[in-house]
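The passage that follows is intended for readers who have already worked through the single-chain material. We present the inputs for a multi-component assembly, then the predicted structure in tokenized form, and finally a short commentary. You are encouraged to pause after the input and sketch how you expect the pieces to fit together before reading on.
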Amino acid sequence: MSDYAHLKDRIAVVGVGNTAYGNFPDRDDYGLGAEAFRNALEDCGLEKSKVDGLLVCRIPYYARMGEILGLSPRWTMPLPPHGRMSAMGIIEAAAALEAGLCDYAALIYANIGRSRRVNYGGEESPGVWDPFGFTSPGAAHALMFQQHRAKYGTTTRQLAEVSVAFRHHACLNPDAVMKQPISIDDHEAARPIVEPLRLLDYCLINDGAVCIILTTKERARDLKKPPVLISGIGAREAYETASIANYDPDCWYHQARDVGRQAYGMAGVGPSDIDTLMCYDNFSPTVLFSLEGLGFCERGEAGGFVEGGALKVGGRLPTNTDGGHLSNSYMQGWALNVEAVRQLRGECGARQVQGAEVAQFCAITPCSRSIIYTRG
Amino acid sequence: METPLPAKPCPKIDPVSRGFWENCHRGILSVQRCEECGNTHYPGTPVCPACLSSRQSWAPVSGRGTLVSWVRFHQAYWDSFRADLPYLVCLVRLQEGPLMLSNFAGEAPDDPPIGSAVEVAFDKVDDELTLPKFRLTS
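Having made your guess, compare it with the prediction:
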């Protein structure tokens, strides 16, 4: 059986850093990335000269990033600006560290989509469905939620629970972009974008950057903060309907099942052991699909599962405690992995999940990934 | 003086997709079929996704299918669609297997039941372009 079991508890997250999040027209990706890198180095107390691995995501040119930071690594990996890349990058870096391709890997993500007015949908190069007016990742999630609604009776008020819980967390997070609490009624009254989804089902688009520093468990002992270990990994792609971008006829249920099986099996835990979940939330429906696929509830029952504030800190499954993409920051999964680390370190202040020992990241997308983190 | 409406996005006609659009022009819905293994799929691909053969052709299909999902756009991602707002996009699974995104032909139903039977109805946009759309069949 092919799996990642040999990587269990071998690699540690030792440093995390981020910038402020918002609209920064005077700054570029490199400047934001550099600030996040500096903060992550400070977080772990590592000397810059020790960094010999560089992974960049959504950064225009990896070599320019290296020049700016004064790095001469022996391992470099650039990743495209897709939301699904965060855990893909962390897993690649973990494998590179385990293989000895580098000793300390810095993973840097930056996004200037807000200040540069990046649109998702209606791109200039014509897609196969453009003549019918179909475009945008949100529309693909609207298609899937419509199916979920028809098949299982899931309601938009249940969907609202996701947005309301994450906004509640953002109000507890000093870094978060969105600070106004919202109610289920606010969600229902919001402007429709691609029905059945409304504005509050859509993630933010904002500027900012995140950096994560990884090394081996042994090297982690010499650094400032208690290490957080990568204990479980799962991965499965779904390319069969890639021409309908961001759409899967089964809401990635089968891929998520497979990812969960791998990650839980490797970590030796199950969904009931997860103290806090960090769930990729470009659009609110994907949270429901993730909960079902990973086995937090039965298929078709996520609408009921999230009712009554279940995803809030203090609820049955505190999820996206930083506010997620919907209300904290559109750092495309990277900030959610940082939040998992901070929860396990007990650094989350008003939004801390008391006694958190096991945190899970998941991105249920055409490239589904999950990482289970534990205290080292 | 009226400003001419901006043109809607056109399909990209290339050596792979040309056969599909020529068939639409003649009122025939087709999917790409592998001459080696019989795999059918849409959109077209330069090689068969099952057996990697380059010997593929556009095979006529029944034009019948099932409504898998639909959404209603309230946002104009192109100026050329602004006048149509709100408009519906439907997702159809053809009897022969492939999925197709399209619109409802003629007046769009208000709340079409998922799982409904649909059939193709061609919409001649101009001399160059005919789009395959779908209508509910009772």
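Commentary: The CA atoms of residues 75 and 125 of chain B lie 23 Å apart. The longest strand of chain B covers residues 64-73. How closely did your sketch match?
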